[in-house]
Amino acid sequence: MVGRPRQFDVDQTLDAAMRAFWARGYEATSMADLMAATGLHKGSLYQAFGDKHALFIEALKRYLAEMARAGAKAIQTAPTPRDGLERLGHMLIDMTGEDPDGPSGCMALNALSELAPHDTEVRELLQGQVTRIREAIAATVAGAQEQGQIAADRSPEVLADMLLMFVWGLSMSTKAYLDKTHAHALLDEQLEAIF
After folding, report:
1. Are 151 and 145 in contact (CB under 8 A)?
2. Cα separation of 18 and 101, whole Å?
3. Which of 6-10, 55-59, 88-92 has the weakest average pLDDT?
4. In the list 16, 103, 113, 166, which could disulfide-bond 22, CB 3.0-4.6 Å?
5. 161-192 CB burial, b ≥16 within 10 A, e <16
6. Contacts of 84 (CB under 8 A, 6+ apart)
7. Domains of the chain, earliest start first
8. Which residues contact 161 (CB under 8 A, 6 or more apart)?
């Protein structure tokens, strides 16, 4: 017996769910919120994605994939590796939301603080993403060092970690008190300090 074909766009549904989880967090997002965001009934959501946690995992995977694509593009389209690092940092700040009722901060960091301490699946998903990001940034730093754009006396991995920690701190701060203009200015100062 063949099931009924889906009457909704999976990508649009995941985008809507992603924005709902990103705006409120996992625990504070109810099934009613998800139904309102996606325009689907509970049964349709469960049939397509399973439970709320499974939908969150798919939404988080979508967010991480979008971040990875955007980050790779920021680095690869820059005129130099150092410019790529600057673009990446500023892009990550720009991706934090400004709408008080919409997403704020970084969905991955939000999930890291809310769920990763007690949710193995979320923790492993985020650990894999961080490893890939760190490796890409370290490789870009090494490329900038080879071209003489960044001093070669420090480990590319250490510089990658410093950049990530600072950008993540800025991203979390934009959720509460730091406006983007100030965050961009602080990032520029930090880039000069570490590179």
Report:
1. yes
2. 14
3. 6-10
4. 103
5. ebbbebbbebbbbbeeebeeeebeebbeebbe
6. 74, 75, 76, 77, 78, 140
7. 63-194 (1.10.357.10)
8. 134
Residue whose tokens read 């798919």: 58
CA distance 180 to 94: 7
Query: In this structure, what token pair is assigned to residue 60?
Result: 């988080």
* Inter-residue contact 92 to 72 (CB < 8 Å): no
pLDDT digits (tens, 9 = 90+) for 114-162: 999 999 999 999 999 999 999 999 999 999 999 999 999 999 999 999 9
- Radius of gyration (Cα) for the chain, nearest Å? 19
Q: Round to whole Å and give the CA distance between 143 and 47.
A: 47
How many other β-carbons are positioned within 10 Å of the β-carbon of residue 132?
Answer: 14
Residue whose entry in the numeric block shows the structure tokens 């919409």: 102
* Residue written as token pair 């492993």: 124
List the alpha helices (DSSP H) in the chain.
10-24, 31-38, 42-49, 52-76, 81-94, 107-114, 120-146, 156-173, 180-194
